[in-house]
Amino acid sequence: MHIGFILTKSPSEQGFRTFIDFSKLYINNDRISIYLVGNGVYCARKSYSDPDLETLFKSSNVHVSGSDLKARGIEEEMIKEEMIVFSEYDDMIINVMENFNQVVSF
Amino acid sequence: MRIKDTNNRKSSQGKVMVIVLSDGPYISQYADIGYNMAQKALDLGYGVKIFLYMDGVHIPQKDQNPRTLPNISQSFEELIEKGCEIKACIRCAAARGYLDESQFLEGVEITSVYDLAEWMDENSKVVMLGS
After folding, report:
1. I need a labelling partner for B18 at 20 to 30 A (CA). Which of A15, B40, B50, B114 fits?
2. What is the ipTM metric for this complex?
3. Range of the domain at B103
4. Which chain B residues in 27-56 lie under 8 Å from chain A, judged by CB atoms?
5. How far apart (Å, rounded) are the C-alpha atoms in residues A47 and B110?
6. Statement: the pTM of the whole predicted model exceeds 0.80
């Protein structure tokens, strides 16, 4: 199964730990894609490290919104290497509608 | 009277993105994220339905004047013109003083939350956005 997560929350916001706990159900079992939008882009920073998040990211394709990074003053060189920066929502919408068996947003 | 482009928005694929918004405008980014997703989905030929829940019912209020921020009401008006269907939870609306649709953009319907359940079928994908 291919599951898509849309993460809109920073690590300090309510709901982030729920996302981490929920994602553990899928690691090693399913294909995972993650879209970081809004405050979710804070998870992409090199300076933020969380063992559970690192494990999840290693098992996933992670996309991050370029405009939301820019709005928060986060330069592309400040984010983790494996991130795919996107500028338009096309790819996310097509994945949600055509490729993900489930989509869950936090 | 606004003419809605509903026929095109049935979409060739027959697939519908359902977006549930539970945050009001100007307090978080969710209304803007929802708008951007809806706009892109419509441009790609998908149907889009938006259900406004809790403080989300403030989004289509007419005559907003945020001054320094983009007017979310105008943005949602564009979505309606493109064929987006928007419904607001009646209990959430009444609790916030919207007793009928007169304070909302034309095309926004106040309805039961059961309509949201009816939108969730095999042709739809549901995205929840809110705090």
Report:
1. A15
2. 0.93
3. 6-129
4. 28-30, 33, 36-37, 40-41, 44, 46
5. 45
6. yes
